Fold each of these.
Amino acid sequence: MDRICAGYIGEMGIPEDKREEFSDRVFQVLHQGGMMQIEAARLRGQEVPLLKPLQYDEEGRLIFCYNYFGDSFREEAGYDRNTCTFQSGDVGFGEFQRVICAVYVLFEFYTDTFGLAELNGRLFDAGFHIGWLNYLFREQYTDRRAIDPWGIADLFHKNDKELDKNLEAFLDEGEVSYSSLARYCYVEKGSKTFLELWNKKNKGFCGLVRKLEEDLEKAVGDQGRDLKETEAAHRKDSWEDVADFLLHSLELDFEERMKLLNEEPYQALAVPFLVLPPEFLVKAVAQAGGKDFWPLWEQWRPRVKWVRLLEDEQSLYCSPYLPVRTADFLRLPPYQIIKVGGKVLGEDYFRTTDDDRVFYWREDGDVVFSEEMKNQFLEWKKEYERIRNDRCPSHSGDMWIQKLVNLLTRAERSRQRIYAFQEMFYEFLGNSGREEYQAAILLLECLLNRSCKKGIGFGKKNIDWESLSRKVTFYPDRILLKRYLALLANKALRNKVLGF
């Protein structure tokens, strides 16, 4: 399967006064999105992989390669709170990819410069990601990227990226900045196409562009001999002379620019050079000399005294995305499909729900269990109480530790990627002589036996887990094992269901 890599086009620099909040939010995105670490415990000659919720290491880094909801291992990714930078490799698809992309999208709202999250160098619809960020942090984020097509084109060129060929399809013209779209069309589509498209929208603006182009051609061509009777107009200026003079005017404040352009021989150009956006002026000057726009724009961009009111335009063209609950975000958006191995996989393929968020349940939290899951809790409670009433076998604590290790080893080998949580594991080791913990271990054994009896085996060596259908990996009895281990790790919920 081809690699799918996420990233960020632009500078990741986070202002000093926003770094602490940004780092807290990156942590919440990764935590709520199911990113975890796997650490192995070595006990009685056996190695038991254990789930460990993300924690910063001694160097201030979050390092991970596993997503709990997708049961997926990917290339290592990490966030460094000292530098506020984030890196990832192959992110695959499903939950791992969406959570990684959400972190990159978060950068868009914190950096001082314009930047974009991307997948394999292509833009993606970030509406679902932004809605989730709004939900997590009670924000009013908009898709400000989508109102600035010129900013996108400029960013791609500045970072030596090939402009996304699907940019126009990605943008919804009814929700973009008028002036930004005009810049994009004029620079990327050329004068002829721009004037054909824009003449119906704003004849006056197009007339000004035509006049600019015509007067520039006269200023640098032989036609300039007939333009004026003055001696200055009769000389044939080189393109370099015209470009240097006119582009120098862009370095000046408005009043200084107006004074300069009122001098001969460029009075005819004064109005467009005072009114049109600088991108239009540089493009027209480059066009008149048969030059490429982008090298000239790179040269003059830092010197232009022009403030684009994009933030003001944002309130006119964008509305905040409605909040998207975590469980809804973790499911594949209903409008999205993914092609894997020649098969098109839709929403049913990705089945993450609140029922899979047992570990994340809090008394005042947002996890809402289905009636089916509530009934499952009742069944576990009845079975757990039956086991306790029948009295557990009177083994020593060491025997129960060995039994737990054996069960977890068997679960991981036969069901694959079924792990206990680290804190829960060591809690059970420390309480192995108590009946309530012993009964919970026996219930785990019952669930594992049922899963192995009804389910499909995963015992083959070198199995390609990522290629397996979720009809296999999300087999109900296997998922019940996973949810039960999450219940044992969630002390508050465990107390409500099992009473200890």
Amino acid sequence: MGIVTEYHTAVALIGALKSFMLTSAQYEVMLRIRSPARFLTMLRETTYGEVLPEPSPRFRVEDVEKRLLEHYYQVFGKVLRATPPSSKPVLEAMLRRHEVNCLKTLLRAVTYHVKSEEVLKEIVPVGRYDLDLCRKILGAKDLNEFIDSIEPDLKHSITPALKLFEEKGSLIPVEIAMDNYALIRMWDSLKALSTHDREVAEHLIGIEVDFVNVMSVLRARRLGIEVAMLPISVYRYVEQTLLDSMSRASSTVKAMELLKNTPYAIPAVKASKDPSRALFRLEVEFKRHLARESERVFLGDWFHIGTLIGFLNLKFYEVSDLIAMLNGKVDGLEVKEVRDILILYQTSQS
């Protein structure tokens, strides 16, 4: 009874929040709407109506994106507050990963001298990176000043990658170091969990670990950077030796073929069918795989941390899909082109 009592509040909240998520039927209708304004009108009839502005011919896509992401972070906050104290460090580490992604946006802006005003119009502050701190960090004149403005432990993790940045002229090694920093904290947060909680959490977070590691290696190999040179120190189903082999493969598709004996064989096969966009396709298929695994946690007992992690994954992908649909309509893409980049409800089409 202990674990049921511990998760009762969180599970009740997740049940209510999940009931407001869009259905596959709603996805299909929204996908086929051509007009961005009509799309927003229909979206306003869902749970997102409370955060979206009145449809206008002159609406800014960026404003809608911000409101959708702000909605997600509000939902994340509700779930975090309802999380049992014993599991809260895991969700705090997940939120830290979102904070790091926000910081990566600031990193690119500072490095490539994007005007602060332009960045602040579009960025979505999250967690400790509120608007004031984002503005302060954007005041950095260059990468070195940016590094000096962040937390000491994150600075320590990033510093070794600066040499690769100077050699390659690419932020990829620095961003990989930032991702690794976040993944370490997510993985370490699982150690204090009970056995059952830890098993389901390790599975879901482990998929994200593998996803980030594989994508990092494939992007770095384009720069001629081998695994030994990368700041990667957390692994799940794809071990360091396999990542090393992938970094040495003759092509991206050949590297993906090495995933054949991992849980990601099907995503890799699907991605390799489109060689010119193989890296992008693999990213989409990895996310679809994680979405399916996240949905599976709702098939049985809900009284564990997997319910919280799974819901937050699905909710984030729903928001990402809505942003993709809106941009697709604004850009005049065909239904098939938009469907190709969606994450949820795409099993039969993927």
